[in-house]
Design brief:
Helix content is about 40%, strand content about 20%. The mean pLDDT is about 95. The protein is of the alpha/beta class. The protein has eleven helices and twelve strands. The protein binds iron/sulfur cluster. The site of iron/sulfur cluster has 15 residues, from helix 1, helix 4 and helix 8.
Length: about 325
């Protein structure tokens, strides 16, 4: 019998599903239970292929745009990332039964942006172009009233309408450290700029990054379980690298692990993005257990007891 090499695994806590993701997935499942299949979902309900495929097998149909939805009385659910204002308006014009599963913490950012706009300020959104959350937040205000800033260069070259009448909001899933630098640059250049009362980066993003910062410097390698299109999962990999971990990888499933890279390690950190289910962490742990003799330690940096109730349209039905 071959003796397996020893591997000490440090499991980050918290990791995986956040309250907004649980709510969005529950919304699809509850809509299927109440209204039967099919239930339409605009965009991946959360950025995880396993979650999407599981919901498809239960009767959810995923579309990218509303015009792919036929005339139907079945519900159409908007994803956790949020949508531009034009989407609910289009749905209403077509008499579509819409259920909004936008995370309440994204909605909070939308309301902040609207409030600043009503008070006459031009709004700057710190975020990544093309991410659905950014598309949704930009779409809360008329074009020109909100500007995306992605880099320190963007801030240096920005030509606002009135530099004494500005506010900023941010994407919820950014790097905490990068965002601090961006906000410092904004306040240096525009000392009068107004920001959120409480950080826009959500508790789940912050806590998962903190746990990675604790573990990354003391392990040989770190795996982030999550999808490559998941912003908060991507940020966890970056945080691990910047915290001194020489080998950090983002993997969706056990089949994606590049085993050659991990052959000579003796310690491994594992975390999961906010849209990655725990079953995939277990799958990856099992795959390591087939190759190594594991000892497992959980490193906890925060307790999370956050819960969001279902979207209003479903609460009424329940
Ligand atoms: S990562 Fe944060 S903002 Fe996004 S769904 Fe989860 S709690 Fe909401």
């Amino acid at each position: 019998m071959t003796v397996k090499p020893k591997l000490h695994v440090l499991l980050c806590a918290p990791r995986g599903f956040c309250a907004g993701v649980v709510r969005a997935i529950d919304a699809v499942e509850e809509a299927l239970r109440i209204h039967g299949a099919p239930v339409y979902v605009r965009h991946e309900i959360v950025h995880n292929k396993y979650v999407v495929e599981t919901l498809k097998s239960k009767g959810a149909i995923f579309v990218e745009e509303l015009d792919e939805v036929p005339d139907t009385t079945q519900p159409v659910i908007f994803s956790a990332h949020g949508v531009p204002k034009s989407i609910p308006a289009d749905a209403e014009a077509r008499n579509i039964f819409a259920i909004d599963a936008t995370c309440p913490l994204v909605t909070k950012v939308h309301r902040e942006a609207e409030l600043h706009h009503r008070q006459g300020r031009q709004v700057l959104l710190v975020g990544h172009a093309g991410h659905p959350e950014v598309v949704g937040t930009l779409g809360q205000l008329p074009s020109g009233s909100i500007i995306l800033v992605q880099t320190l260069d963007d801030i240096a070259t920005l030509q606002p309408l009135d530099e004494n009448n500005l506010a900023y909001v941010t994407q919820t899933t950014l790097s905490v450290d990068d965002t601090r630098c961006m906000v410092e640059a904004l306040t240096r250049r525009f000392p009068q700029i107004m920001g959120p009362h409480r950080e826009d980066i959500c508790y789940a993003t912050t806590n998962r990054q903190e746990a990675v910062k604790r573990i990354a410097p003391v392990v040989d390698a770190l795996l982030v379980v999550g999808s490559s299109n998941s912003s908060n999962s991507q940020r966890l990999k970056e945080v691990a690298e910047r915290s001194g971990c020489k080998l950090a990888r983002l993997v969706l499933r056990a089949d994606d692990v590049e085993w050659d890279l991990f052959a000579n390690i003796s310690s491994l950190g594992i975390t999961a993005g906010a849209s990655a289910p725990e079953i995939l962490v277990e799958e990856i742990m099992d795959a390591f257990a087939q190759r190594f003799e594991l000892s497992v330690e959980t490193v906890s940096t925060a307790d999370e007891g956050v819960f969001f109730p279902l979207p209003r349209e479903l609460r009424q039905a329940v």
